[in-house]
Amino acid sequence: MKVYLNRTPVVGPWGGGNKTLTQLVQKLKERGHEVVFELTHKDINVYFCFDPRPNQLGDWYGSIYECKNNFGGKIVQRVGDVGTHSKPELTELVRQTVPHTDHVIFPSHWAMNYIDAEIQKHTVIFNSPLSTFHIHKDGTKKLVDNKKVRIVTHHWSDNPKKGFDLYSKLDDILPKFNYEFTYIGRLPSGFKLKNSRCIEPIDAKSLAKELPKHDIYLTASIEEAGANHVLEALACGLPVVYHEKGGSIPEYCDPWGGISFCNFDTMIKSINKMIDEHDRVKADVLTYSLYLEKEITRYIEVIENVIK
Question: At how many degrees (to 10) do helices 16-30 and 292-305 cross?
Answer without folding.
Answer: 60
